[in-house]
């Protein structure tokens, strides 16, 4: 998800042979682990552009032109350059209601182009008729845009373009973004701000962070056009199957059994979540976790990933580390199973017949813990986004080296080596002193 993050978050591509082998062997000795979704035929990238058409978009402060005219030009340029396989939709907010009734104005959002294959003429005509009009129901527009894009196995993308903060909360747009991410909708929201306003910047940053998207301040027509094109193209580049949604447990014995893959979950502040992975002798477990900081938290926080035996014995732990992004924290670990670890597996596994011995896997519990604490006024729900990556590979043995013996043999060898070194050093010293005196 990386190692990487939600929002993000770093994905290992697993080997199909390893996965099938693990499933086949565990079928003989216990329940089959839940597997991350297999790769299937790719769906076309789906993107919806959400444009703010509220009254403030009349302001003429971008290259001497109004914000709405700059946005319309950017839309036209993007539509002309849109890849053929992309399915595009357009939704507006604040575009039709001219009155003062806030209750009515805050319901003002419409989809003017449905998500589907691009009809360039229709899309341009729909955007050209827009005139800045009403309120700014960003939260409602985001929720509606998510419904427009529908559900599926791959990531959908919303590109929000606005010059102001939401004037209609509730629903709060940042909280809406967190709810959409928590629902496992595989949705990324990228935000573009058209006004140099600190409140707007903070709100758009929060929306983007909650879904693993990006925030950009566009101060010119070229910047806006270039950034929208980049985001739409990225929808095709990052158009991959999303992590499988899984729910960790509060104890090892009730934790879900997982196969190699990439998984998404949510974890509350200062919580411990458990997952189980079967590992056979001669195999090595590799795991990483990334947590995205999608809301303000207190200082001095961390993420801990531990591997424990079924009876609670700690096998190894991985320290947290930065990922190169200030809003993602990651941790990873490696652990190899040996024949001595077999007893750490589940006690209820069936005993194999003597004539057909089966080496039962060790059940390793992965424990994801965090020390996050919400700042006053910060919502504690839904939990923080978690991406868990699991792989099981053949254990890498330690490199061979010279056999120096063990115990008394090693001690004797070191003693002889020391005596010889001292003797040679003494002879060289006597020779050097004798030579110095003669001169």
TrEMBL record:
Pfam families per record: VWA_2 (PF13519)
Residue stretches making up the VWFA domain: 46-235
Signal peptide bounds: 1-29
Comp. bias regions, Acidic residues: 339-350
Entry-linked InterPro entries: CLCR, VWF_A, vWFA_dom_sf
Residue stretches spanning the membrane: 408-433
Region (Disordered): 339-358
UniProt entry tagged with the keyword Acyltransferase: no
UniProtKB keywords: Membrane, Signal, Transmembrane, Transmembrane helix
PANTHER family assigned: CALCIUM-ACTIVATED CHLORIDE CHANNEL REGULATOR, ZINC FINGER (C3HC4-TYPE RING FINGER) FAMILY PROTEIN
Name of the protein in question: VWFA domain-containing protein
Organism: Micromonospora lupini str. Lupac 08
């Amino acid at each position: 998800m990386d190692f990487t993050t939600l929002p993000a978050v770093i994905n290992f591509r697993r080997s199909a042979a390893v996965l099938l082998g693990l499933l086949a062997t565990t079928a003989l000795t216990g329940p089959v682990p839940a597997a991350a979704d297999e790769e299937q035929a790719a769906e076309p990238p789906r993107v919806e552009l959400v444009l703010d058409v509220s009254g403030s978009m009349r302001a003429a402060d971008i290259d001497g032109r109004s914000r709405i005219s700059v946005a319309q030009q950017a839309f036209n340029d993007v539509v002309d350059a849109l890849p053929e396989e992309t399915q595009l939709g357009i939704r507006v907010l604040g575009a039709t209601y001219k009155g003062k009734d806030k209750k009515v104005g805050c319901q003002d959002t419409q989809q003017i182009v449905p998500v589907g294959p691009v009809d360039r003429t229709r899309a341009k005509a729909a955007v050209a008729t827009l005139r800045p009009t009403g309120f700014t129901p960003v939260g409602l527009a985001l929720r509606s845009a998510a419904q427009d894009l529908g559900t599926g196995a791959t990531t959908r993308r919303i590109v929000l373009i606005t010059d102001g903060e939401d004037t209609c909360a509730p629903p709060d747009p940042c909280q809406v973004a967190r709810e959409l991410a928590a629902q496992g909708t595989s949705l990324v929201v990228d935000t573009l701000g058209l006004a140099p306003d600190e409140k707007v910047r903070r709100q758009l940053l929060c929306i983007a962070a909650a879904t693993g998207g990006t925030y950009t301040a566009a101060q010119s027509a070229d910047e806006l056009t270039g950034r929208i094109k980049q985001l739409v193209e990225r929808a095709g580049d990052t158009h991959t199957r999303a992590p499988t949604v899984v729910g960790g447990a509060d104890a090892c014995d009730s934790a879900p059994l997982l196969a190699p893959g990439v998984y998404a979950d949510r974890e509350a502040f200062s919580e411990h979540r458990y997952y189980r992975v079967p590992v056979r002798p001669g195999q090595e477990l590799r795991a990483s976790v990334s947590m995205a900081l999608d809301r303000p938290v207190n200082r001095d926080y961390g993420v801990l990933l531990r591997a424990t035996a079924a009876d609670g014995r700690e096998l190894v732990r991985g320290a947290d580390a930065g990922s190169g992004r200030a809003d993602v924290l990651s941790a990873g670990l490696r652990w190899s199973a040996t024949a001595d670890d077999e007893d750490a597996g589940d006690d209820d596994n069936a005993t194999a017949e003597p004539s057909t011995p089966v080496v039962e896997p060790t059940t390793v519990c992965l424990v994801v813990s965090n020390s996050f604490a919400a700042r006053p006024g910060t919502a504690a729900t839904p939990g923080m986004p978690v991406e868990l990556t699991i792989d099981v590979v053949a254990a890498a043995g330690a490199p061979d080296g010279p056999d120096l013996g063990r115990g008394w043999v090693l001690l004797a060898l070191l003693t002889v080596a020391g005596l010889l070194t001292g003797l040679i050093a003494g002879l060289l010293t006597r020779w050097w002193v004798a030579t110095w005196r003669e001169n």
